[in-house]
Amino acid sequence: MTENEIIDELHKLLSAKHQEPDDAFTVTEWCEMLGLQEKAVRKRFRVVKKAGRLDRVIVMRENLAGAVVPIPAYRIIPG
Question: Taking 60 as the threshold, does the pLDDT of residue 28 lie above it?
């Protein structure tokens, strides 16, 4: 196996252990989509969580150093 094949294989195995839903976003992504600061997004999340409609999952995202890491993401459960 080449180095790239090994890396690809390990990445696929790691990614398979984490959910990658299309409707879950990180806090940073929610901030960008809503045009709000992190504090405002988290405040809204507390309200949604209290209502039992916030789902937390782990997704893989690339960090600033270029490494793909697991990070919490959130989605709203339809009512």
Answer: yes
